[in-house]
Amino acid sequence: MSLQMISTVSNSSLLQPGFSLLNFDGHVFFFGQKGWPKRSCPTGVFLLDIKQNELKMKPAAFSKDSCYLPPLRYPALCTLRSDARADEYQYIIHGGKTPNNELSDKIYFMSLVSKTSKKITFQCIEKDLGGDVPEARYGHTINVVHSRGKSVSVLFGGRTYTPLAQRTTEKWNSVVDCLPSVFLIDFEFGCCTSYILPELQDGLSFHVSIARDDTIYILGGHSLQNNTRSPNLYKLKIDLPLGSPAVTCTILSGGISVSSAIVTQISDTEFVLVGGYHSDNQKRLACNTIVLEDSKIEIVESVSPEWTPDIKHCRMWFGSDMGKGSVLLGIPGANKQIIPDANYFYILRCKGAEEDKEEELITQNCSQTSSEDPGDSAPFEDSEEFCFSAEANSFDADDADTYNEDDEEDESETGYWITCCASCNIDINTWVPFYSTELNKPAMILCSSGAGHWVHAQCMDLSETILLRLSEANVKYFCNKHIDLNKGLQTPQKVVRLKKPPMKPLRKKKTMKLSTSTKKSFLRRLFE
Asked: Any idea which positions bind Zn(2+) (predicted)?
């Protein structure tokens, strides 16, 4: 194994624990930043491009028929193919935390629509489910299994907020383990069925799950109820006959008591387990090789890399699978860096020396997810690394499209988050879009009282129709506080007088001039 440090360019503060990894055609993307997306990348989905050990972020776009995908932290993700050997696939995204720390119960499908050297476009569709729909959660896993020519998705574990009836003021945002139910989701028919297995007694979160054919292996994980990391190794087998599915669970020996570990695949049957935690205050620096053959699993300890002193002495770490046996690891930068919230990043290559040299010749893309910030919950335990296979190939995009965080304005210093009135409840940490025209900032309107001041449209109880009319019409607006004061001061509208066209003078009637002989002739006839 080899360990190499990489540097970030002007955008390291976006690479915070909690976002997730997507891999399309060997190009690695992430989404789920800690805050709401900014105008430079309204989708919140970025390409992670590493060239010459420097990491750059390039924004991706959504198609016009896509739904809105909020930046979700700690969701469950996996790839869905039409069959086990299909080349085309899409990602399933379920659950996770929004920037307002609300938990999502929605499920999305994301697929790649088009890709050029200048622009990458995704399609995101929200799916509706019926039956035993899983509750909102985070820190869980989802996998796809194939049996008898059919496939289903299997969801397990995670955490959720304490039910409203059991909350107290002191522990309003406390979390609990979800029930240890196994959910089978059939997306073809849009139905979901839950199974309670006697072997699964305690809820687990931030565990590792590996799927192969019709079997899923669940390793490690943390239980909040018992404050333990399970040493058990669970084997879930899903049979899909013509009738009802059959789900069985077997407890195997040889498990590892670990949470928040990372798995990367180095061959068709071999995986490497890296990182995680033995306890709240102890990182797991050992590595293991996992071999899956003939419906059997074997876990053996492998040689660990030479960890740097910074990695050994840091209290937390996080990372994600880059694919091809490589892992991206991150540790907090603390006060060692000028940029706040910046992290140090390393690439760990788990293959042999010769294979590592071949990997170094390829310009790599990488992504990292995981490790919740300590302020959201107990230390370490929410530092989940969601691990997905990602090939580390280069994406030769134009550097001009690189996202530069310095180009963004500091939203905390702008007028969008002011207290516009006494009843203003707009807060940068809890705000969610209210109007369909809003994306990452609240809609505001100028009050024309005095020198003028800005107010939030939502605080003024403006309907979306009125807001649109005011934005399109060139009229003065007065907020709720100044509307009465300015009623008598409003300038009456100027009456535009209609210009009447000038009347044309009457024309004189033309008279016929008669000659003298004609007049005499006329008089003779008149008196005869």
From this structure: 420, 424, 447, 453, 456, 459, 479, 482
* pLDDT per position as a tens digit, 196-242: 999 998 899 999 999 999 999 999 999 998 899 989 999 999 999 98
User: Is 420 marked within a binding site?
Assistant: yes
Q: Where are the alpha helices (DSSP H) in 82-203?
A: none
78 assigned to a ligand binding site: no
Determine if residue 479 is labeled as part of a ligand binding site.
yes
> For residues 369 and 30, is the Cβ–Cβ distance under 8 A?
yes
Instruction: Provide the token pair at 368.
Output: 């990292």
Tell whether residue 67 is among the known ligand binding residues: no
Answer yes or no: is 178 a known binding residue. Answer: no
447 annotated ligand-binding residue: yes
Ligand-binding annotation for 350, yes or no, is no
The two structure tokens encoding residue 48: 């992670």
**Residue 371 corresponds to which tokens in the numbers above?**
């490790």
The closest alpha carbon to 29, from 37, 42, 38, 20, belongs to 20
Integer Cα distance of 60 and 387 in angstroms: 21
| Contact between 301 and 286 (Cβ < 8 Å) | yes
Quote the CA–CA distance of 67 and 159 in Å, as a whole number. 26
Whether 456 has a binding-site annotation, put simply, is yes
Distance CA 405, CA 419 (A): 26
